[in-house]
Design brief:
Helices cover 43% and strands 14% of the residues. By secondary structure, the chain is α/β, with parallel strands linked by helices. It has 2 domains: 40 residues, no CATH class; 269 residues, TIM Barrel. Strands 1-2-3-4-5-6-7-8 form an 8-stranded parallel barrel. The longest helix is centred in the middle third of the chain and has 17 residues.
Length: 320
């Protein structure tokens, strides 16, 4: 349409120069060119504008000082009180944020912006309980979306959670998801953490035993390239066993020689045991050069909010 108008206008100009009448209105050539330019531009939709806003707000990931004091928040409800509780701790913590099963990454932009001034942030792509609800392709799309939107708001990405757990699904698919997440984070220049599930004497399938699964399913490039390798352990799941942790982390150090090591998740559902567990794990000092602590008590939001509550005081006393 615009091209036709331009040709008609040019013919009209020739007619005027020849003192011949022209029935077309005079359209300035500059306006025609401007219209052509604008028509070729892609219009920015509201969603595009929101994405641009989110990307422009991304900041660089930070180096987390060691040792780590980690806690987990499994929901961002009541965030104000949670932030106040985190801020009141005597040590700036590392907060592991459990992203919702089907929540879009955009839901967490404001949350992470509020958390970052009072904590370091570990983002968990997907809790182990929900892995079975994803296939490799949909998980890869989820990981890419979270990296695109949240970017540098996350200091460390947990690429796999309790990765050898027997409830996650078929091993080939689970291992593929882990590898995909590792590669995506590496491509963006991010830091990756892999959380294994310690299950000595409490597995059903011998192939799921932590060291056996890791040896068989984690590629060599990950064994030398992971930034952090963490262990999730619940005494409730393993008959109250208290492992020889220096020996466990010694073996992990041999398998992952370049990785920092620590606990990625601990806790108990039994109220009468919580205080002793908090003191035991957060007070633990494993004699290994790469050990950084962590722990990431699963029930921080339930047990330690608001600040000053009994278990919050136990944690704060233990980490001083």
């Amino acid at each position: 349409m615009i091209l036709d108008d331009m040709l008609h206008w040019l013919n009209c100009r020739r007619a005027i120069s020849a003192n011949v009448g022209c029935d077309a209105p005079f359209v300035p050539f500059l306006l025609v060119i401007l219209s052509l330019f604008l028509s070729s531009c892609r219009l920015v939709t509201d969603s595009d504008a929101q994405l641009v806003t989110m990307q422009s707000a991304v900041v660089n990931p930070r180096t987390i000082p060691e040792p780590w004091v980690g806690v987990t928040i499994d929901s961002v409800s009541n965030l104000g009180e949670t932030i106040a509780s985190l801020q009141a701790l005597s040590v700036k913590p590392v907060v592991r944020v459990v992203f919702g099963k089907h929540a879009p990454a955009a839901d967490y932009v404001e949350t992470l912006d509020e958390l970052r001034p009072v904590s370091y942030v570990m983002g968990k792509f997907l809790d182990s309980f929900y892995v079975k609800d994803y296939d490799r392709e949909s998980f890869r799309a989820r990981a890419r979306e979270y990296l695109d939107v949240l970017g540098g708001r996350v200091d460390v990405w947990e690429i796999g959670n309790e990765i050898n757990g027997e409830w996650l699904g078929e091993t080939e698919t689970v291992a593929g998801m882990m590898i995909d997440a590792f590669e995506l984070v590496r491509e963006r220049g991010g830091k990756s953490a892999l959380t294994l599930y310690y299950n000595e004497g409490c597995w059903e399938d011998p192939a799921a035993e932590m060291f056996r699964w890791a040896g068989a399913n984690i590629p060599e490039e990950m064994k030398i390239g992971l930034d952090y390798v963490l262990v999730s352990y619940y005494e409730d799941d393993c008959y109250g066993l208290q492992p020889d942790w220096p020996k466990v982390f010694g073996r992990l150090g041999e398998m992952f020689p370049n990785s920092k090591l620590g606990f990625g998740e601990v806790g108990t559902k039994y109220s009468e045991l919580k205080e002793s567990y908090i003191r035991r794990y957060y007070g633990m000092d494993v004699d290994h050069p790469n050990f950084i602590g962590g722990y990431f008590w699963w029930y921080f939001r339930q047990d330690m909010v608001p600040s000053g509550s009994p278990l919050w005081q136990v944690l704060n006393e233990t980490i001083q």
